[in-house]
Amino acid sequence: AVMFTQFKTVDQTDITAIETMREAELRTELSSWKTKYEDIETKIEERDAKINEYKQELNNGANSLKILEDEVKEAESYLGYTDVQGQGIIVTLKDTDMYNIENYELLKLVNELNIAGAEAISINDQRVVNTSDITLINNRIILVNTKKISGPYTVKAIGDKQYFESALTIKGGYIDEIKASGLDI
Predict the structure, then answer these.
(1) How far apart are the C-alpha atoms of 73 and 57, rounded to whole Å?
(2) Which of 105, 104, 100, 103 is CA-nearest to residue 178?
(3) What is the pLDDT of residues 153-169, one digit of tens each?
(4) Count H helices, E strands: the chain?
(5) pTM of whole model > 0.70?
(6) Can you tell me the distance from the alpha carbon of 122 to that of 182, in angstroms, rounded to the nearest whole number?
(7) Closest Cα to residue 178, out of 91, 62, 113?
């Protein structure tokens, strides 16, 4: 029997390069945390200014009701309780004989539109907000906010229509993927 043994020599490890790499990573992480801190600090300053405005208005008494009404309208709009209008885009997805739309295709479209700066999104007139769910039941029923929807799926988004179009039509992007899947868009 013949036995072979192989020895591999390792050059001296360059500790300085590793420390520099770690230092660069730490600097990047520190920069990221600094940006987050500054964003939070700005939000705190905005809230403090709002609180001071409330206190001032309460002392005056005249505009306090108007300020509260404005806050309620803003919250309702954010939560999707009110209708909104503006320029945007409408995307319609249709089932084909070979393939049915699934919830993840709608989720991906919603995410693409959000990334492109959508102010408001709806699917078959069901508003989609941060807390919305788009689920698939029994591999064939799609629910948006626990309400059953069926095809064709009309997705409306308010925002800059040029951003939306660019985001969706980029080569290899959402529309190319959908068409490659055999779906109608």
Answers:
(1) 18
(2) 105
(3) 999 999 888 888 888 88
(4) 5, 7
(5) no
(6) 24
(7) 91
